[in-house]
Amino acid sequence: MTSQVSSPAEHADEADETGEALVGGQRRPPGEKEVRQLDRVIIRFAGDSGDGMQLTGDRFTSETASYGNDLSTLPNFPAEIRAPAGTLPGVSSFQVHFADHDILTPGDAPHVLVAMNPAALKANIDDVPRGGEIIVNTDEFAKRAMAKVGYETSPLEDGSLDGYSVHPVPLTTLTIEALKEFGLSRKEAERSKNMFALGLLSWMYHRPTEGTEKFLRAKFAKKPEIAEANVAAFRAGWNFGETTEDFAVSYEVAPADTAFPTGTYRNISGNLALSYGLIAASRQADLPLYLGSYPITPASDILHELSRHKNFGVRTFQAEDEIAGIGAALGAAFGGSLAVTTTSGPGVALKSETIGLAVSLELPLLVVDIQRGGPSTGLPTKTEQADLLQAMYGRNGEAPVPVVAPRTPADCFDAALDAARIALTYRTPVLLLSDGYLANGSEPWRIPDLDELPDLRTQFATGPNHTLDDGTEVFWPYKRDPQTLARPWAVPGTPGLEHRIGGIEKQDGSGNISYDPANHDLMVRTRQAKIDGIEVADLEVDDPDGARALVLGWGSTYGPITAAVRRIRREGGAVAQAHLRHLNPFPRNLGEVLGRYGKVVVPEMNLGQLATLIRARFLVDAHSYNQVNGMPFKAEQLAAALKEALDD
Q1: How many CA atoms lie within 13 A of 349 on its CB side?
Q2: What is the DSSP letter of 75?
């Protein structure tokens, strides 16, 4: 859904001398509910993994994006396809933070918790600050359901929630009552209770409704009675908020008009942005896009999305395993396509030999790693940044590859274009490191104009490029561009360009098999020099106060780090910030930047992998701050830790 940014509207309530509230400059009619203005809100929807919390949160987010707010989201769901109902491990949640100004994170703590059952309440209550609002589906608070999660007495009656603003709502009963005319079974009607909750929250925060109703009718187009039932439940939730006395106040969060440059925006997730970036790269390169992939959480959405775009020359192949997926992609690269394979950390391990083959063949290949918690199968639906050293060194022999990391969901689009630029220009595989937080999270994205996109067109080899001593003109597949050290890209079937291919070491220039020690040394050093010579932008430093300390990050920690740095500066602290997109090679000015500061702190969602690289490469005593709990940093927690580290 897209929205055009315009000038701010007047939303603030006022009061005249009589004390009666004015809405938009007009006196509120008797009995009309109060509307309060807020600058930001954090809402968390929580329930069983079968309660549709991800869909509910996604629809609320889409309408919020169309309204023009800045936003950031955090979906959080179990790894199991259908986790045990009513249990703590089975709780699925979706948090959305939206505001009338620039924001960077999904928020540390929800102002509003919608709890569909006792498990959802218990799993999330500790995150809700005192005074926060809790909307509870009272129909689910039966003794058995409460006992399953350790409630000996009802938290709705024992006083344990006295510090919160609790709204007990029989969501299930109200939904079933609203859908009586549709002739659905009780079980079928119950499934729409998430839409009732969505309608209620949409009323509370003045969200648009047309998009959701249109979405529901499209989603259930083959079952129109189900579509209309969901629309009815959604409207019933809205009407309940409008008429019940329990909700005396609704809230407005004005559009974030000043937070964005003028343009057309849409809400976008990291995986969707990355998919669009790959398609844009193939169009800008004038090459067909080929994806060879095996489904794996949290990367599968890229395969799903790209499979929808055959009209752009996209070909997708769902292979039988990870090795077949990258093998097919490398074959497509050999054949002249912009080739991609997508996976997560466990899949990178399986693909490692073929990545090494791509290094040896010196062919452009994008390897997209949507990182998740490990080791082994680990935490498929949780986020982590622990594949950096695997991306850098996880192959046999000296097999260097460029490493690129986006920093926000929307930035995944630009990172995909950048990774394609490097792969095509330098004839090398490139590892693109996103993660589960970016992949599933979303934010507004300004749709770029076509003339803003880079020209990625590349030339295939068309004829001989070398003259032998006897005057014979031949094609040498490893004769290099003197600037980039890239070898020519010869498409199979081009007359006169036949050449040997395979994983055994190549002779410099001719590409013939070579076991010569000196040649191997030369080829290893040449491939490393090619990576070292890749042109990447200098590292930009945000340092308005001439700080003595620098916070250095990479990837998805950008939002929490920036939010934490803002908090420190508001409190009078001086701290500089820099964020790396290119991790191999590092920006050429990184050493000089690090040398300016007496202290460097590196927050990471691992045990210090970038900090290890920084210490080794630049002999800088980088201080690590690490978290590996499957969740992104919280800004307040990170700000406190940074202040402590910087004050030492």
Answers
A1: 9
A2: E
The beta strand positions in 319-449, using DSSP E, are 338-343, 365-371, 403-404, 429-435, 442-446
User: Comparing C-alpha atoms, which of 378, 435, 447, 369 is closest to residue 408?
Assistant: 435
CA quadruple 15, 21, 24, 28: dihedral sign: negative
Distance CA 10, CA 149 (A): 46
Residue 401 structure tokens: 């590859």
Q: Write the pLDDT tens digit of every residue in 123-159.
A: 999 999 999 999 999 999 999 999 999 999 999 999 9
Are 270 and 412 within 8 A, CB to CB? Answer: yes
Residues 499-511: tens digit of each pLDDT: 989 999 999 999 9
Asked whether the predicted pLDDT for residue 3 surpasses 60, the reply is no
What CA–CA distance (Å, rounded) separates 328 from 14? 64
- How many whole angstroms separate alpha carbon 622 and alpha carbon 593? 13
pLDDT at 192: 97
Beta bridge partners of 625: 603
Does pTM top 0.85 for this prediction? yes
Phi-psi region of 131 (alpha: psi -120 to 50; beta: other; left: phi over 0): left
Q: What pLDDT shows up at residue 31?
A: 59
How crowded is residue 30: how many other Cβ atoms within 10 Å of its Cβ?
Answer: 6
Query: Helix 171-178 and helix 193-204: axis angle, to 10°?
Result: 100
The number of helix segments (H) and strand segments (E) in the chain equals 20, 28
Q: Which residues contact 243 (CB under 8 A, 6 or more apart)?
A: none
**Could you write out the DSSP letters of every residue in 161-203?**
TTTSEEEEE-HHHHHHHHTGGGT--HHHHHTTHHHHHHHHHHH
Mean pLDDT of the chain: 94
Q: How many Å apart are CA 92 and CA 76, to the nearest integer?
A: 6
CA dist., res. 55 & res. 466, Å (int):
60
Q: How far, in Å, CA of 525 to CA of 517, rounded?
A: 12
CA distance 561 to 551: 8
Percent of the chain predicted with pLDDT > 70: 95
What is the chain's percent helix, strand, coil content, to nearest 5? Answer: 40, 20, 40
> Is residue 524 scored above 90 in pLDDT?
yes
Whether residue 444 has a cis bond before it, omega within 30° of 0: no
- pLDDT recorded at residue 19: 34
Residue whose tokens read 């701290």: 575
Answer yes or no: are the C-beta atoms of 371 and 298 closer than 8 Å: no
Amino acid at 447: I
* Positive or negative torsion for Cα 429, 430, 436, 442: negative
pLDDT at 5 over 90: no
Give the C-alpha separation, 221 to 51, whole Å. Answer: 21
607 Cβ contact partners less than 8 Å away, ≥ 6 residues apart: 386, 624, 626, 628
